[in-house]
Amino acid sequence: MTTYVLVPGAWIGGWAYAEVADLLRAEGHEVHAVTLSGLDGGGDAASIDLETHIADVVGVIGDREDVVLVGHSYAGMVITGVADRVGERLAKLVYLDSAPFENGESMLDFSGPIPNVDGRFPFPSFEALSQDAGIDKDTYDVLSTKAVGHPYGSYAQPLRISDKEPTYERVVIACDDFRGLVATGMPRFQQFVAPVWKRVDIDTGHWPMITTPKELAAVLNAL
Prior knowledge:
Keywords: Hydrolase. It is built from ten helices and eight strands. The chain is α/β, with parallel strands linked by helices. The protein has a single domain, classed as Alpha/Beta hydrolase fold, catalytic domain (Rossmann fold).
């Protein structure tokens, strides 16, 4: 049995992993799909920052050992911080259509300016997401029914990590969005080469837990 901790990206909660989690549990695994602070639509957004989200996941891991920690999109920033705090508890660190960040970087350094409406980054329009992440209308409709404004502070706060040497296996699951960024030549996305990294490609859009949950579960189960 493996323990999986699944962390969603911006605007969405653990609900997005529901089918993936059920499929992994059917294989006998322990699965925790995390809803980060503020991503249930509640809480004071102004009090939520990146450290809050890192602490959320550290709390879920607790005293568990040999955890497979998965972070999607924005959560690549979160799990990078978590691995710095409790890396000794991880068996694998998995970036799902995402990448690690460096000490001192914030999500705003990557995304550029974003709207701030009452302390939240609103869920973008279909037109904006279809241009940036290649989302189709069906997937957008699924996400938009439960998506909430993302706490702005988690994008604005820089990541603070040490220079610890990783003791866990590093994995990237590359979907269409990731492969598109690799093609741009952006240095951040050129590092994922063996033997340091294991890379698995899935031919789908940026939200594989919604579009290809069976394939994503199979990939995670086989890690």
